[in-house]
Amino acid sequence: MNISRRTFIKNGSIAITGAAFLPASILDKPEKTDTILGIQLWTVRDEMEKDPAGILKKLAKMGYRYVEHAGYQDRKFYGYTASEFKKLLNDLGLKMDSGHSFFGINAWDKTKKDFTDEWKYTVEDAAAVGMKYLISPGVEEVLCKNMDDFKWYMDFINKNGALCKKGGVTFGYHNEDYEFNHKLDDTVIYDLILQMTDKSLVCQQIDICNMYEFGGRAMDYLKRYPGRFLLMHVKDEVKRSTPSKDGQIFENTILGKGIIGVKPLADFARKTGTKYFIIEQESYQDKTPLECAYEDLKVMQKWGY
To answer: N or C: lower Cβ tally within 10 Å for the chain?
Structure first.
């Protein structure tokens, strides 16, 4: 793909391995209670831009009951106000507990020493549309160059967590790939994020594929930080026929067709506290995005989700 979801949205001490310390009862069998299966609408981003109501109707007809947005701009969700979009979802029998809006340095007004009105509106609209989790994809890279700036950034994120909580939503963080290719004080940035964000104020959405290119392995993190990942982006990876323009050699594919080992990851996550399993596919090989959305849904349903 030419533009990442994070770019699109932005422009519009390491813990010991935890599995050994988990109760055997947790590891023995998965609990499906309250598990939610849905789709990240970035999967059908071009279609949503042209006909959001029509695409949501098609997704609902496929069997989806939950969606996660990546289309909030100028106080509108895919061109709809919060109240309008909430009604559209309700009419189609769809829920949207979570959505993506990038949180970075532009959310802070240096003059007022406060969050910008624009970011406060983002929190307000998230609550108004019915969201429970307002999630930021990726880091503000300019604040990841030295530890002093990074510590300020993590404190900023925690303060935002408090702001969101007061506004009726929970702030969340979603990993991209930069966090695994960069370190501070000889520690991978993603580990620092997990260590320095307040888990009572900031929830985590783990993307099991974004980390893969630069050596991150989702199972390692699920074991190292048990119970931290309330949400998961369920994706699979296959080697590209030719590297992308930025040199990446992997791309998404239909669940179960790639190299990630998605089912064991999802099953382990479900055992250790993950509630939301959100399908996302950003590359499609010889299929359409809607065809992929349908096939991915059927795979997850076959796996018991």
So the answer is: N
